[in-house]
Amino acid sequence: MWRSAIVCVGSVCLLTASHSAFGQQTSTASQTSPDPTFKCRRPADPRRRQTGCNEHEFTVDETLAGGWGKVRQAMQRIGITPTASYVGGLQTNVTGSRDQAWSYAGQLSLGFSADLGELIRARGLSAYVGISWGTGSNLAGSIDSVIATSGLYAPSFYLGEMYLQQKLMKDKVTVLAGRLAAGNTFAQLPVFANYVNYGINPGPFSLGANDFSFPGPPPGSEWGAQASYLVTPAIQLDAGIFNTNLNSALGENHGTDFAIQEGNKGVLAVGEISYLRNQAANSRGEPGQISLGVLHNGNAFASLTDASEQRDGLTGAYVMGQQMVFRPEGPGTTRGATIWAAGTLNYKKVVSPIPLFWGAGASYEGVIPLRKHDIVSAGLMRTQASRYALPANTEQFFELNYQWNHSRYLTITPHGQYLWIQEKHGTRNATVIGIQVALTL
Prior knowledge:
Blueprint: E1 2-3, E2 57-58, H1 71-77, E3 80-95, E4 102-115, H2 116-119, E5 125-136, H3 139-142, E6 156-168, E7 173-180, H4 205-210, E8 222-232, E9 235-242, H5 246-249, H6 252-255, E10 268-277, E11 288-302, E12 310-326, E13 336-346, E14 356-365, E15 375-384, E16 395-405, E17 410-423, E18 426-440
Antiparallel strand pairs: 1-2, 3-4, 3-18, 4-5, 5-6, 6-7, 7-8, 8-9, 9-10, 10-11, 11-12, 12-13, 13-14, 14-15, 15-16, 16-17, 17-18
């Protein structure tokens, strides 16, 4: 077994309440704590990792290269776990532009987690650093879409999150400090990772479009601190404060701009409460999650009516939830149907180009009896522009995809998207098709 601190990707995260049947996994969760497999179907993958997977373990059959010869084994003996993955996507617009364009985008991700309890005998203390290398182009630019049709486009090399983590109070409290990203923890649902479009994967597009210091790397991250408290097995509180340096958020110097102030002021503060339904390892019912969050950024933002004018502060809120509604094989299995919905609101429309967002969808794992771990997903989402912003900031899109799971380490996802893009003189439609490959190395 290898200790990992990695987020799921590709076909990850359809709901589960016990060990995954698709490759045996173990969990440190007790019978009353939330089962980590709910959020961590791919614990060996470092792309867009979330701290909820920090103590999750994985076996060598979850990676293409197994134990990397003796390298992974040797590093694990001293408490260090290296992980790697590659995700690549090819897309084209069938309609929606004068010319048809082809776009490829890919990301190679590396992650290193260190159990400092083993290295320096510091109980409950660990460290993590992530790195990414992106290549390719952005199809959204060819069809004039506000929302990227894939979340892979982040060309160049970037240093990602880099932080220390401490577990306290019998693991009920988790504290992080260092280079962090609010978007890697807050406004997240596991089912979002079942989609390709950046409008919902990894989270609602509007939050990052209004505040560049919110999204996670690549390209950027911020100095910050956050804490999570499992009040009861069903109630979890999360809170964090993050710097607001725009250069850091945009990945200046390949993610190594460590300055605290470069014309910015204030902090981004985020709070979230989550109801974790039937997530304990011994739960008999179908698992789900409902999260409600608020955020406030004290920085100055350019007015949409006059770019030379600055307005102080940006406040927003979000609500989202997912629920497994059908599990034919009973507790301890992942096959079945999950529905989800999400909505966001930013209050200051004069500085928020997309103050409103809503989305809803469903995923079904094992719709074909002979392919029990393949996942089909559909979702409809809409961004609503501020009345002070360009009409093109209002956009609606529908995605349908099928995630073919060859193994624990390889997922191939053919997908289609249909976009309604509002323009000055009306609405233009675009159709996008593509295929995405996710490989855990």
